[in-house]
Design a protein that fits this description.
Blueprint (H helix, E strand, L loop, with lengths): L14 E7 L3 H11 L4 E8 L6 H14 L7 E3 L10 H4 L1 H5 L19 H15 L3 E5 L4 H9 L7 E7 L25 H4 L2 H10 L3 E4 L1 H4 L6 H11 L3 H11 L10 H10 L8 E7 L9 E3 L7 E4 L6 H11 L5
Parallel strand pairs: 1-2, 1-4, 2-3, 4-5, 5-6, 6-9
Antiparallel strand pairs: 7-8, 7-9
Helix pairs in contact: 1-11, 1-12, 5-6, 6-8, 10-11
Protein name: Inosine/uridine-preferring nucleoside hydrolase domain-containing protein
Keywords: Glycosidase, Hydrolase
GO molecular function, one term: purine nucleosidase activity
């Protein structure tokens, strides 16, 4: 497949975007896809101490930025704290990612302690208000890094444009595995990005308008397939973005539960036509008891409605989009 040339888009017409994630393998493939989107200007990356080990996580983010040719892309570490910590067997994926061959030439340039992700987000939202250019927020972790900043400075919500969030499970099972999570709390309905901080998730869904939500209902159909891996491997001989994705997903491709959770919400930003029409509904989160973290449709009064994307309209097109956008080099 031929490399996709960068589109000719004027810098001042690009939409500013901040990516808030927790340094999972899929997050870094999503980062490469954002870099390949001509209409978005990635202004910064904020790491949450959730599904990662924070120092190695932000160091890998620094190395990925250098790999992309953007060594000065702002990075920050959120001070957000979750309620239910992710299992350690999940969190070391960022450490394993740091050992893939394609990242070997790059060394992290993150100071100790890392820059504040809270300050970075506040600065970007303030700039969005000042310039009249709303900030797109791609959020593939819990809501806490966003809600804490808005709690301290509520006026900054005026700078938010669209929010795309991966989280929850509506009509499918959650992903709390009793093998890695204590069975006393591993209820069958919760998804980790909600379970990590159910209070922040409920607060955001009650107070922020028109969030595009991508629950497990849709991400369960976005597996890291052998066909995807074969295409990435073939393209990797010529295109470094494909080689990165092949090496990254190679760490987890034999894990049947691993899906492209965060890539699913990312692709929607650029290709919404690949997704079935959303279900528009208010949402709430169970905050206490055994069902803590269960995302549910809420009564229609008192809460804003959100767009919940439950399926693809063109699933083959989704995979084709990913491989086509990754047919490029830094």
């Amino acid at each position: 497949m031929a490399e996709v040339p960068p589109a000719s888009v004027a810098v001042d017409s690009m939409m500013p975007l901040v990516f808030i994630h927790d340094a999972a393998i899929d997050d870094f493939v999503a980062t490469l896809l954002i870099e390949a989107m001509p209409q978005f200007d990635l202004k910064g990356v904020i790491i949450a101490n959730a599904d990662c080990v924070p120092q190695p996580g932000i160091e890998v983010a620094s190395r990925v930025n250098q790999f992309m040719g953007k060594p000065d892309l702002p990075l920050g570490l959120s001070k957000a704290r979750g309620w239910n910590p992710f299992p350690w067997p999940y969190r070391d994926d960022c450490i394993r990612l740091g050992a893939i061959p394609i990242l070997a030439p790059f060394q992290p340039n993150v100071p100790t302690p890392p820059p504040s992700g809270d300050d970075l987000l506040a600065e970007m939202l303030a700039a969005a208000i000042e310039t009249g250019t709303p900030l797109t927020i791609l959020l593939t972790t819990g809501f806490t890094p966003l809600t804490e900043v808005l709690s301290a400075r509520p006026e900054l919500a005026q700078g938010i444009g669209q929010i795309a969030w991966m989280g929850g499970a509506l009509e499918v099972k959650g992903n709390l595995d009793p093998a890695t999570t204590d069975p006393a709390v591993a209820n069958p309905h919760a998804e980790w990005n909600v379970f990590w901080d159910p209070f922040a998730a409920d607060e955001a869904l009650a107070s922020l308008s028109e969030i595009a939500v991508f629950p497990l209902d849709i991400t369960d159909t976005a597996a890291v397939t052998p066909a995807l891996m074969a295409t990435l491997q073939a393209q990797g001989a010529e295109h470094s973005f494909s080689q990165f994705a092949y090496e990254a997903y190679g760490l987890v491709s034999d894990e049947p539960f691993y899906d492209m959770w965060n890539v699913t919400s990312t692709v929607w930003l650029d290709a919404p036509e690949l997704y079935s029409a959303p279900r528009r509904t208010p949402l709430q989160v169970v905050q206490w008891g055994f069902e803590q973290g269960w995302l549910q449709s809420a009564p229609t009064s008192g809460r804003p409605a959100h767009n919940v994307y439950l399926s693809f309209a063109d699933q083959p097109g989704f995979y084709d989009y990913v491989t086509t956008r990754l047919a490029r080099s830094a």
